[in-house]
Specification:
- Helices cover about 70% and strands about 0% of the residues.
- It is built from 16 helices and four strands.
- Strand 2 and strand 3 form a beta hairpin.
- The longest helix is centred in the C-terminal third of the chain and has 27 residues, at about 215-245.
Amino acid sequence: MPTAAPTASPRTPLFTLPMAITFALLLSTPLWLARVGLYQYLALEIMIWMLFALGYNLLLGTSGLPSFGHGAFFGIGAYAFGLLQQRVWASLWFDLLGAVLVTAACAALVAACISHRRGIYYALLTIAFGQVVWFVAIKWHTVTGGEDGLLNIQRLPLELGFARIPLKSNEALFYFCFAVFALVLIGLWRVVHSPFGRILGAIRQNELRAAFVGHNVWLCKWLAFVIASAVAGLAGALFAMAQQSAYPNVMSLHSSGFVVMMVLIGGGLVSFWGPVIGALFFILARDLLGAATDTWLLWYGLLFIAMVLWKPEGIAGAWQAWRHRPAPPAVRAAHKEVAHGPV
């Protein structure tokens, strides 16, 4: 695993040409997905997991804080959205905001307990808290529905004051999720490239040195955990809306492991866009491999092992290495001749 990631300049553009092309393709997926033999819901699922992975990367990629129980906050957001809708007020904006606030409040309590820890102890505590939340979801049947989950969550319409847009179709919900994703993406980009983001980078490089130069390491770790969890809760709420249900598996160790794999295989440790690439790659690989064999997770696991062993910087890192590869000697000699030749 790389120990250092390049620090992007504040002037680094948010969209490069490859990313702009990727987003244009992503935005048009409802138009062509069915024509290539894939189902429409897949685009919606990819978008939600991209959002989840992008928020999680604020912890793992930017801050170097490994949380292996982060699926719990994805699940808390899903359950909070469903419970608020069914027991308090069925309003899309109210339920989404409430789900984010409930998840952030839970994360604030967890982060207050674990932010004094480092390394393996930090990671183990996140697993323990994740398992506690999953156990509560299973056993608190009167509220969560137990193993059956919370059913009949509605796809509420989007109220804009001057218009009321139904989100019952997968296409409509996809474009709503895309808009939410774009707003969160810009917000996280600003966070990563702010002074706070640079402190998180310093903590990732050396936590003790960051403390010695006067940074409040505990507060920064606490805040990064809460922001990342709030984004996970938002993704979970959208997932509950898409699935029209919330169930314990969404907060299991599997979900936590999947998002870690997305970030690492996409190159989240070296690129802001790594989680986006990783989520896209993971969901497509799951569906394409799953259509060919029931043991798709075995093959994906072997692929993940190979990637970590030989290309730990992930897909984005491999792309960066290819772009900045040294020119062949003949090309370098030709460039030198042109540079020093007569004008």
